[in-house]
TrEMBL record:
GO terms for biological process: protein transport. Belongs to the calcineurin regulatory subunit family. CHP subfamily. Keywords: Calcium, Cell membrane, Cytoplasm, Lipoprotein, Membrane, Metal-binding, Myristate, Nucleus, Phosphoprotein, Protein transport, Repeat, Transport. It is found in: Cell membrane; Cytoplasm; Nucleus. Residues 26-61 form the EF-hand domain. This is Calcineurin like EF-hand protein 1. GO terms for cellular component: cytoplasm; nucleus; plasma membrane. It comes from Gorilla gorilla gorilla.
Amino acid sequence: MGSRASTLLRDEELEEIKKETGFSHSQITRLYSRFTSLDKGENGTLSREDFQRIPELAINPLGDRIINAFFPEGEDQVNFRGFMRTLAHFRPIEDNEKSKDVNGPEPLNSRSNKLHCKEHDGSCL
């Protein structure tokens, strides 16, 4: 399954996601494989129902809130890029990342981006 994921995910797209989210190449490839296994309609997107089929989310009292974090207001599908952007909010910041380019964009998982997300649409936990 890992080879399928790496062939369907273009190298340039993988690099863009890596830069945008901070996930490693292997993490992105593994998450892409998981994303495609959840995509029962094989259309490159996930629906709320796809997430609800995950047993751990189905029994989690916060499952609906976690699922809602993946869907901006009025959206009912999420593509892989959106999936990764949402997961990046939950990725911890490593010490070596804190000293990165101060002129570059702030990481998706920064404290201010997490607060910004909460204040504007409430879609993130």
